[in-house]
Structures are given as structure tokens and as C-alpha cells.
Amino acid sequence: MTGSDEAGDNKVGSLRIMATTDLHANLLSHDYYSDQPDPALGLSRVATLIAQARREAATIGAATLLLDNGDSIFGTPIAERPLELSHTRPAPVAQAFNLLKYDAVGLGNHDFDFGLDQLRQALLHINCPVLCSNMQALDPQLSLPFSQATVLERELADTADTPPLRIGLLSVLPIQTLKWAAHLLQGKVTIEDMVQSARDHAVALREQGCDIVVALAHTGIGEKHATYGIENALHPLANLGVLDAIIGGHTHLTLPDPRHPVSVPVVMPGAHGSHLGVIDLRVTWHSDRWAITKATSTLRPIARRRTIGGAGGVLTPLVAEDPAMIEALAEDHAETRTRMAQPVGRTNQPLHSYFTFLGRDQALALVAWAQAAAVRPALTDTVASNLPLLSAAAPGKFGARSGPSNYTDVPVGQMYMRHVIDIQPFPNELRTVVLNGAQLRDWLEMSAGLFNQVAPGTFGSPLLNEDRAGHNFDVIFGIQYDIDVSAPARFASDGELANPDSHRIRNLRWKGAPVRDSQHFAVAVSSYRIGGGGNFATAQAATPLPTPPLRVRDAIRDYVAGRTDRDPLEHAPPPWRLFSHASTEAEIFTGPGARAYLSDLDPSRHSLHGTTPDGFLRIGVRL
């Protein structure tokens, strides 16, 4: 709360800003990967909260704005419908946003995952401004499907003798988007630094007479001070002194949070439709403009986990789904379920990611085998034809900020298309590179930064660094290595060399022999990693090889269906393990669904430690 509620003889009004972010096309409260209802997600439940918040605002005469902060256009299968359907009805996200009467939509990095043409098609029927302030076309003839900023006006109750409240909106996303989607955006657009762009657009909006400037900032908490190209910049943005409120996102956190105070009103409403963010602004007319005299920021969740006896209990919805949303999307929902039910093949073992950070993930192995099988024929008659072929894969669903149900879990038996997308939720393309043994070692060192440093002889330390994203934990199949978490991480999360004398990767071997620095390998890998995702400098510096255009998930589909040959990597030993230290135990969290697969773990090294209040299963890991 800021300012004073004293208005004196001045006119006073109120503005309620409601916000969503990182929906990732979770429009309904339904998990398309398991084909089951899921009360933890869905804009259809947030819609009920929006209606409640609007009714509350109406009772006090407050004006309202409904905003979205990006990474909402694509994500779940309902947003990836066949192209021919785009000619018969608007995209599902457009239908949902129009139904709820959004006032403006910002764009996030994942909204560009399918390129500009598909984004343009998805945005075509959205009936409100779509914004991205820090992206511009390199070719003036290229028309981008969004605006850089907009100004909205709201009449305030009981202020007939004063002008309407003018609200300027801008939207910024990480400059790294150009790397992450390089194969789709390179040579077409440029992206400016978020902080500089926000400053410039905010000043311009003030010059246009805006009383309030709100930033749709697709960015997380990050560092206190700005550096060029900073990915998570909420603090530097707040400290600009030209923004009155910020909607955060990108990192799937929830704000406000007393552990992360921000100097202006801010909300970050989680992800997948888990929360509605609400900022209430009290404004007073001071002779020539409206000024904020009071501000509050709150979050409203759609569900809450009941805690029973100190353990995480059942996730209980707090609001029902909006019937109008269910009706509007019924046709797309049915089509998506039918499409996801297409048979692909069979699996003779369960494929799950509950133990992916313990070195036991058959779903990840399947990705690696499928990638290798897809590129191996293309290496014939190339410079890499006689090189060992490795395959790098990282988990797509691993709990963390997305919650204890966010894990891949494919049962034995028939596999369907929904299982393939469950294993590979991102639409990355397949790439092949050549690198030497020294580069390979540094690639693994960067990946091993996921783990915290654990001192030998200690017990109960968290094994995973929660500030590192699990989708940046590359496992490279076809080699074997140990990860020694007693050493500090060699690389920081931004890819910079943090501890030059530290080495976590030990006993790196190929076919039982130590890998030499001068030895060369071919590696099948995703376009996201080669494009700069995760800041793996050695992967970006590797020599690219021609690879047939293919999405990773299509390679998985073809491999399961038997349309590509079984790959020799299937017979390779497991790639990695944690290096052992006497009398040392750390702790890791996983989903409660892991209970069905506890026999996969070595009981001499792993033990159950109960459940966390938010529903994760705690596992002790003896090093």
C-alpha cells in the first residue's frame, strides 16, 4: 500500500487492474496429456474469479481493466489444432479472450514458438490491442501482428467534471527470445533491451497525456540492478520511476510475496491459470491530472491444497469453471481430445519423469533414441559419418514451479499422440552438431549447474537449485559420466564461467575409455539448445550439420510407430550417476505419482521423507 487515502475536496476514483499470465493455452480445467480434469489449472476457473472481481468493482464504482501478460497463445494441444480449422472459427485463445472481454494482451517468448505466420493467425480475431514494445521488424515492409503500445481511457464514477483516466500500456519480453526462436525469427526482427524499451515507451506515453503507465513485463524477479539484456528485470523496471504498476510473468512465480518486495505495485499470477492478479489503484484529481494515492496488490487462487496432519492433501478447487467458457470451447475441446487419442504405438515399460534428476528417466531415453534414429541416416557421406553419434535431451515436465502434478507419466501399453506431446511438450526442431571432447565436458558442466553444492558429511541439503530451470538439464546419451555435487558449479546460469578451477563432471567415458579433449562427436539436439536456450555457450559454438527439418515430437512419434529403425543407443549404459560421498545425504522433491514407481529406486540410496505442504513427495538421496 502506498500514499494516502485523504482526498480533501479533490475528485477521487478507483481503477481495478486484473491480470493473467503464462496461461500456455490452459483454457479449460483439463489436462490433455492424461485426458483428465485438473482443478489446478484453467482460464475457465479464472473466468469465475474475473466475474467476481468485476462485480466487486461495480459496487464501489471502480473502473476495470483485464490484461494478459503473454505466453498464453500456445502451449497445450488445444492451441495446436489443424490449420484447416483456422478458416472455420477463431483460434481457441481468441475465443476465450473475446468472451472474457480482455482489454489488452502482451506477448511472451513462447508466443513466437511457431513463428510469425502462426502467431498472426492466432491473433487475427482477438478484439483488443495485442502489444510487444521491444520487438521491431528489420524489413519495414514486414507487418508485425501487434502494436508497440496503446492508450486506454476510463470514466471514473462521480467525476463528471474531470477528464477520463488515461492509462498507457506497454509490453516487453526478454531479448533472449531472439535466440530461443532463432530458426523462426533470425533476420526478420530485432529485440531491444527490456529496461531501455520500457523507459522509452513509458516516457512517450506520459507525453501523450497518460495519467498511469502500466507495464506488461514478461519477466521475473532477477537482479536488483539493470545490465544490458537482463532476462529477469522486475526490480530494474520498477526502479525506472516512470511505471505505476507492473504485471510480471515468465518465471511462473506468484507475486506479491513478502520475500520479494518490489518498489511499485506488482502482481505475477503464477502460470497455467492458477491465479488471478488484482491491483487496486485509488486516484485523485490534482488540478491537471489524475495521481495515484493508494495501491494494493493481491492474488486470488483457483484452487488450494488441503493440508492434513502436516502433509500435502487433496487439491480442492475454490471456484467452478465458467459455463460460458466451457460452451464456447466445446467444439475445440472435443476435436483436441480426438486428435490426442490417435494411436501411435506401444510401450512395454512405463515412461515417467518422476526420477529424472536421479538418473532414471525412460521417457528421456526414448527422446534421445528417437533423435539419434532420425539423424543417423542423414550423417552418411558427411564429415560426421565416422564419428560417434550422441543424443542430448532434457526433461519437459519436472514439477518445480508448475506443481506436483506436472510430470510425464505414460503407462505400459498403447501409446497415443497425447503421450508423445506429454514427453515432448515443446515444439522444438531437431538439430545436429559436431564438437570435441573439451566442449562436450563443458556442455555437461553447464547442465550439472542444476544441482546445489552439497558438502560431504551433511544431511538434508536440497539437491536441486530452485533458481535453475529443469528444462536446462541436458542428459547426453551415448557416453557415461559422474556428477560430483560436492564441487561448486563451474558455470553460472547465464553461461559465464563462475569457478574456473571447479569440475563436477568426473569419469567421462565413451565405450569405457576416457574421453579425450581432442576427440570429436556428433550430437543430436533440439533447436532450442542450439539457438541459445539455457545459455549453453559450447552448444552454440559447436559446428552445425545439415539435418532434415523435423520436430522432436515427430521423431518420437515415428520411432514409437516403427517408421524409423531402432537405434544402437538403446543398448548403451545409463549416461550418468551422482558421485558417491560417504555419510552424505541430500533431499529432492518429486510428484506424489512417483509412489507407483518406487521399485525403480535403489532402497540403499533412496528413502521416503514424507510429503510437503504443497503436495510434493520428499526423497532422501544418499550420495
From TrEMBL:
Top EC class, one word: hydrolase
UniProt keyword annotations, A-Z: Hydrolase, Nucleotide-binding, Signal
Residue intervals of the 5'-Nucleotidase C-terminal domain: 390-538
A GO term, aspect molecular function: 2',3'-cyclic-nucleotide 2'-phosphodiesterase activity
Coiled coil: none
Gene Ontology BP annotations: nucleotide catabolic process
Highest taxon, organism lineage: Bacteria
Any GO CC annotation of this UniProt entry: outer membrane-bounded periplasmic space
Family per similarity comment: Belongs to the 5'-nucleotidase family.
Protein name: 2',3'-cyclic-nucleotide 2'-phosphodiesterase CpdB
UniProt organism field: Phaeobacter gallaeciensis
